[in-house]
Amino acid sequence: MSPSSTPDWSAVRAQFPILSQVQSNGQPLIYLDNAASSQKPQAVIDALVRYYTHDNANVHRGLYELSARATDQYERARGRVAQFIGAEENEIIFTRGTTEGVNLIAHAWCSKNLRAGDVILLTELEHHSNLIPWQLAAQRHGATLRFVPVLDETGAPDPTALPAMLTPEVKLFAFVHISNSLGTIHPAEEWCALARSRGIATLVDGAQSAGHIPVNVKDLGCDFYVLGGHKMCAPTGIGALYGRAEMLDELPPFHGGGEMIESVRYDRATYRAAPARFEAGTPNIAGAIVLAAACDYLDGIGIGHIAARDEALTRRMVDALNSINGVRAIGPEGPRGALSSFVMEGVHPHDLVTAASEYGLALRGGHHCTQPLMKKLKLPGTARASLYFYNTEAEIDRMAEILTAIRKYFA
Ligand SMILES: *Cc1c(COP(=O)(O)O)cnc(C)c1O
Predict the structure, then answer these.
(1) 3-state DSSP call for residue 230?
(2) Helix or strand or coil: residue 83?
(3) Whose CA is nearest to atom 15 of ligand 1?
(4) Which of 18, 31, 101 shows the shortest CA–CA distance to 291?
């Protein structure tokens, strides 16, 4: 399939074996929880099996053929992931996922750069993974957190707030690229440029943008970008942190242990340059190699096609939700991520999601790891339907039927 021609989406869907299953109650699975984790295509599953069937050995220290092969594949995977987001190979650190990437920076960067009285700026839309690590860092260093306010349920940031909030005591601005609970797409390029012009470091939480829209970290102009593999067709337990080379080189280690050292004495050690400095212990070798396979897979379809598909399906979904009596879709009216939070009058999100499961429909309900945001918007939580390119128009239409039936049942 060449990235220029529009993919045959039903052939693409057939590459995901899990999607053709029937649930225990006889209902076909309708998987609309992609913002929590994506499914995996056969090509990615095969890459995992291939690695463990043919190439498994520890990396970097073995002088035998198998280890050399594993090492070669692991390091090539770094280059592949770098290419996927427009970075250089030495700017990619493999992590367990988005959360670990944020924690790495919240430790390493903050221990070098954050002082008492400093401020870390976030937005009110942050996932707990891009909030708690900064709370902990602020406590360690005597710093405080401030938040760019969200206007209302549309998820739009207050447009006038940011320039006034980028004050001299702000040292780092960390924000979600695409909100996992409202679908807001933040103007990351504009925000990173504004922050940089004032000497403020930036971290972009790319958990919902990587694999969904074209991402080029150099165009974004961020200092750090974090992603998790499991939301972009790769396994759980693998992710990547991009750090601008000049930024990474000056950071102290996060975890200590094998592979990140240059030389060790009993009382002290010297450390290798990035990225090795930040990869202590045996890494998730298979995960990295398979993450690269997922990048190949997604680029094979074409991220542009995926983004267009996401957009078309999302528009249909939001319209379908709003057409159901008693249902209100929440989030931006214009462009948004491939998801919609919604509320159903008189039905608690947990009850709704449990009822949906009876029909084979997988949704998520609750605070979506954004508890303070739900509180601010005075919502008891929401139900959320989230899409990926392998979902279908028919599934969205069926979702609307199911929700209509649930609404009738509870009314
Ligand atoms: C899922 C998610 C995270 C956490 O990502 P992991 O890779 O699972 O650690 C962080 N931020 C956002 C916006 C997310 O959607």
Answers:
(1) helix
(2) helix
(3) 180
(4) 101
Query: Cβ distance 251 to 232 under 8 Å?
Result: no
The pair phi, psi for residue 204, each rounded to 5°, is -110, 125
**Which atom from ligand 1 is nearest to the alpha carbon of 229?**
7
Helix, strand, coil percentages, rounded to 5, for the chain: 45, 20, 40
For the full predicted model, state whether its pTM sits above 0.90: yes
Instruction: Please state the atom number of ligand 1 nearest to the C-alpha of residue 178.
Output: 13
**Which residue's structure tokens are 């939480």?**
205
Which structural domains are found in the chain, ordered by start?
Answer: 9-40+302-410 (3.90.1150.10), 46-300 (3.40.640.10)
Largest interatomic CA distance in the chain: 71
Give the residue from 354, 380, 386 showing the smallest Cα distance to 367: 380
233 flagged as catalytic: no
Residue 245 Cα to ligand 1 midpoint, Å, equals: 24
Encoding tokens for residue 381? 């939580």
Closest to 53 (Cα-Cα) out of 286, 283, 239, 230 = 286
pLDDT digits (tens, 9 = 90+) for 151-170: 999 999 988 899 999 999 99
DSSP SS3 for 92: strand
Q: Is 293 helix (H, G, I), strand (E, B) or coil?
A: helix
How many Å lie between the centroid of ligand 1 and the Cα of residue 207?
5
Pairwise CA distance, residues 50 & 55, whole Å: 7
Cβ distance 41 to 388 under 8 Å? no
Residue with tokens 């053929």: 65
Q: Which residue has the tokens 């890459």?
A: 47
Residue pair 85/119 in contact by the 8 Å Cβ criterion:
no
Question: Using a 6 Å cutoff on CB, does residue 208 contact ligand 1?
Answer: yes
Q: Which residue has the tokens 């971290």?
A: 203
pLDDT digits 0-9 by tens, 308-326:
999 999 999 999 999 999 9
Q: What is the pLDDT of residues 81-92, one digit of tens each?
A: 999 999 999 999
DSSP calls for 188-211: HHHHHHHHHHTT-EEEEE-TTTTT
Comparison of pLDDT for 168 and 3, the residue scoring more: 168
